[in-house]
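Review box. Two proteins, two foldings.
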Amino acid sequence: MNETTLSNCKKHVVDFIVKEGDPEMSVVEDDIRQDLAAIGIEVNTRFVNASEYIRLEENGDYNLFFTRSWGAPYDPHTYLTSWDTPSHVEYSATGNLEPPMTQERLLEKIATVQQELDEIEIQTQWKEILDDIHGQAIFLPLWGSRVPYVLNRRFAGFTPSSQTYTYPIENIRILSGSNNVSIAPGAGNALFSSAGPIHPHQYFPNQLFTQAWVYEGLVNYGQDGSIEPKLATKWITEDLKDSTGVIIGQRVTFDLREGVKFHDGEDFNCDVAKLNFDHVLSDSAKQRHSWMGAVRALKSWECNNQGQFVLETNQPFYPLLQELTYIRPLTMASPASFANGLETNPELSNSCNPGSSKWTDIEAIEDFNCAGLSGSHGTGPFKYISRESSDDGTTDDSVLFARNDEYWGAKPEIEFVELKAFPDTESVEAALLSGELDMALGIGPLSAQQVQNLKFYQSDVVDVRHSDVLQHSLMVLNTNKEPTNDINVRKAIIHAVNKGRFIEEEFGGLELPVDQVLPRSAPYCNVDLNPKWAYDPDKAVLLNCPLVVVEAGANSGLSSGGIAGVVIGCLAILGLAGFVYKLISREKAGKPMFAVGEDVKKATPA
């Protein structure tokens, strides 16, 4: 489009928020900016640190926001449930939906489907919800992310995770060299800078993969979404019914694994399970965990006389067991880590660390206090040992973990694990090739192009693996801030971005374009949604530059086919209007266009 016609487009300025250090988004941000400039939309990109990213996510001060779906095992139910939490970007993004849909109505539908127990009805309701979301044009689906894992050839037996944020190194076999390994991990889809406090009940800056090494829950998320035993060996689920036979809740009774020790030597048992649930689900603390449907659905958790752990819900809730597989917050810390051991009051001395991000309002509640945990002691295959940190304690140069020799399951061959921080992806690649670094795991330590180059040109040195597509990379369009509060502006942005081009150029085949918010592999998400949010410059120009459609076509904007389509569409609308006018006129004159024939009239009863 030339300068003359571009000057006649609607001029918009949009704020685009991208997290610093995200190796995927950093290489495509300029492509998106250029594509939108072509239809008169100026992009103000703000690369922000993790803390600022979270702050902007919560206060809604953005038009475009780069994020990802949560992936397995969180999609679709927990990811969409989290949309009613103000600290999540989707909350602000959905605040001004197109009528008749409202944010309240959408969230109500998301809550209702999770109370359904019939599989066919669950699928039907999820299809309707996904259609509703798709039609609002609040997401530009970009690409499906496959998590990369790069390992030195001295290792074997690594299996890519079935979850997005875990690095299952406990089953790796060591073919040669030291039993000690060094890892550059992806942390929040960026370069590693800190492991955080390694606290089982809290969130950022805690890293999910370290929490998964150290702590365990009752059940585990297996291949294809199967629910597998962990600290519980088996369980029975029963429906709770009222006097009329209507299901009003569920009861799950768990048999707990015996002989399990925490890293500090304490025993795991039902009392400890209840203690951890007490602190996550206390009246005050559970406000921080309300993104989980299980937190809202659970009404009681008790130990029976047989030492079994019994959960009851206040309503039917089909994802309960799946949510109990999550890495946090319903996982087990040693009772000795709590302020007063097993007797610790969950309101007066809660396990939450004082001064933690997003706990300010909860800490302000009268008679509630965050006392924290005195140590990072779980039951997992690795235990935390030490760290080398910056003077202010906000970043880690290295973090050391050791094998748990008392582990109840198969013991890892790896003896010590050192997490190492690197200044950039080039340093990570160089360390891998020199042998200084054993593994680069997850999204963040290497760019997609580096991963592909290592796979095809350095396969004698490293083994490159990938997960299936576990999550989708997305650009969120905020309905609560001008100009993206206008659905036509959102549609113009979606159709203007040529994601196929930059994905091919920047990712070298590692990622593929997607056209829906959630992966089709997620439960109930293998559905066909329309219209297709695909690259279509003709539609983008028509939506944002309507005064120059013909001129844009003549100057290489709209194709002749595009102009013809617009003309034909207009003629069709005019023709339909004329037809309706003629139809009404004939009816008024007593000469209906579609009069019933005489033979039919005679056969019709009076």
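Next protein.
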Amino acid sequence: MALVRWVALAAPCLKSPRTSEVVTGVKSIAAGGDYTCALMDTGGMRCWGANAAGQLGQNSDSTCTRAVGVTTVSCTTCGGSIATTTVPCTVKPPTSDLLASVKAIATGGAQTCALMSTGGVRCWGSNLYGQLGDGTTTNRSTPPTSDVLTGVQAIATGGVHTCALMETGGVRCWGYDYYGQLGDGAPTSGWTPPTSDVLTGVKAISAGCSHTCALMDTGGVRCWGDNRSGQLGDAATATCYEFLGATTGTPCRSTPPASDMLTGVKAISAGCRNTCALMESGGVRCWGDNSYGQLGDGTTTDSSTPPVSDVLTGVQAISTNTTHTCALMETGGVRCWGGNHYGQLGDGTTTNFSAPPAGDVLTGALAIAAGGDFTCALTNNGGMRCWGDNYAGQLGDGTTTNRSVPPTNDVLTGVKAIAAGGYGACALMEAGDVQCWGSVAPWGKVPTAVDLPSGVKAIAAGGNRFNCALMSNDAVRCWGYDTHGQLGDGSTTSGSTPTNDVLAGVQAIAAGADHTCALTNTGGVRCWGDDTYGQLGDGGPAQGGRFSPVQAVGTCD
């Protein structure tokens, strides 16, 4: 999804925390399409940001402005006026929980569901197709006062449908049913959870854009719903119609199959139009969309059934990106397949490869990372080697020449961890220093040391060419692009040298496209940078951004 960014005047920063609203104990954070929810240590829940469909579970306290039809990172060179629209929003965390006794939360594009500690389910937000399960198609701006379903152990939200895994191992789904993803055999959407299971004996569920898959207790897999690309894996050829009387439809399955289409499975993942299974034996099998050969079955033809054997065995980890897939073998070898326009498969060509290669393109690897059109591997001696697209020097080899095979020597040694962005990468060294290369400060074609004190504990790579480091003294320093104040140094001046701490007393950091948040040692949240939708939670909005860390109201200082 393209990120919308534009430049506007900055609003004043919040100068001090509002002590009357301070609470402690943030346990976890979940980010929806353009809003944020926090699960408190106490089991309470609080949300803030965009609220067009009521997904925050509370009344909005502000109106935020967003650009329409603008997809560039910065629109200072777009020319002319920028069309905007307003969105109801809440720009600071509420001072009290909107819901208590929550066990887990699930955020979608515009709907939110909570699994209660009692095993009940409550949903609110967008409800066009009854996906909230409250018997209506009316958006709900507050959590219901009672559960729509009880006895639940897990929940999964798809595009516009919701599924629950019952404590008994049964599956129940509700919401949009055009493609049969609810599994109840009905041609219409279901506005309430069904009273009986559509499938039993299930231990895990996964909801795709418009299909649903279940991992059975026995290790078998069964899927139902949309089958336009064969993602159900059982060659279902039934037709689903959007409304009664329609003359054209979509290949689908409106009920779970009676038998497994694959067995011996350890885990499942339902993508938008494809599905992959990690076998108990360490093998990989994928089916569905295969435009670039990413299924690894030797073709670029969509597959409507899982392969009869693994496309690859002896796998310990996989990293995928838009067009290619890479596997880290149990032996430490690396093998990639799929799109290869820039040599990202590492096989010496720029030809797409629709099957895993028979041999490793690199050995002695500990970890792999598939970037936009390049691949990096961390070797077992702490070195790093990258190949593929190199127009911005992201491979770190001193050139801007694409490389279709892994280099024979490490571009960097003594590496502890790596972070790869769209056009560059950074490495946290075993000695505690940081080196970066590519289109990220210090903007080099070879790994270049960032001017930081020694003793870095963690690094975070932002979406718009900036990085932050968590120091051993629990302080934060950032560098790179600073279009929205995401460096936190009080300005919007980009820089390759992080000279001062922007925040102290921090235990963890996270970098978004153009904003940064920190979890403090006391359990508080401080954020800075882009605040268009109130995502900083400081009482904005500030469309130009917050240039220094501000406290998310309702969290401890």
